[in-house]
Design a protein that fits this description.
- This protein has one domain.
- Helix content is 73%, strand content 0%.
- The protein is globular, with a radius of gyration of 16 Å.
C-alpha cells in the first residue's frame, strides 16, 4: 500500500472541507451558489482539490482520477459561467445546478476508490478497480446525483429561478 505524502494529505483535507461545505450548502440553500460563503468555500476547495489531484501520480501516469479532476474543473467553469452571466437564459440555474452537483460525483468516485483500496491498512476492502463493491458505490453515487438533481430542479422551478 502506498504511503500518503504530505501533498496527498493536503489534497485529502481540502477535498473533505469541500464535501462538508457542499453538503451544508445544499442542506441550507438547496443549490450551490458562489454568493453564499459556504458555497464559495465548496467551489474554491473543490477547485483546489481537483487541481492538486493533477499532481498526484501514485499509480504511474494520467489515470481516471486525473480525468475526473479535469471534468471537475470544466464543471466548475460551466457552472460559474451559467451562474454569473446567465447566458443560457432560463436554463442557467439548471445548468449551474447540474454542473456544480456533478462535482460531488467527481469527488466521490476517486475518494471511495482510494479509501477502499487503502483501508483497513493491513487488508484493504478492495484490491482491484473492477471490484463489485466499488461498482456498487459508483452506482449509488450516480443514483444519488440524479435524485439530488431532480430535487434541485423541482426547488428551482418552484422558486422561479
Amino acid at each position: 500500500m502506498p504511503e500518503i505524502t504530505l501533498f496527498g494529505w493536503f489534497h485529502t483535507l481540502i477535498a473533505i472541507i469541500a464535501l462538508l461545505s457542499g453538503v451544508f450548502t445544499l442542506a441550507k440553500y438547496k443549490v450551490i451558489e458562489s454568493q453564499n460563503l459556504s458555497g464559495l468555500i465548496f467551489l474554491a476547495c473543490t477547485f483546489i482539490a481537483a487541481a492538486s489531484a493533477l499532481g498526484i501520480y501514485k499509480h504511474g501516469g494520467f489515470g481516471v482520477a486525473h480525468a475526473l479532476a479535469v471534468l471537475t474543473i470544466l464543471a466548475l467553469l460551466v457552472g460559474f459561467v451559467a451562474e454569473k452571466t446567465r447566458c443560457f437564459g432560463g436554463l442557467s440555474s439548471y445548468l449551474q445546478a447540474t454542473a456544480y452537483s456533478a462535482t460531488f460525483l467527481f469527488h466521490m468516485i476517486p475518494a471511495i476508490t482510494d479509501g477502499l483500496m487503502r483501508l483497513p491498512i493491513d487488508a484493504p476492502f478492495v484490491t482491484n478497480i473492477e471490484d463489485p463493491l466499488l461498482r456498487g458505490f459508483y452506482l449509488a453515487f450516480l443514483v444519488t446525483y440524479i435524485v439530488g438533481l431532480v430535487l434541485q430542479f423541482r426547488w428551482l422551478r418552484k422558486n422561479k429561478r
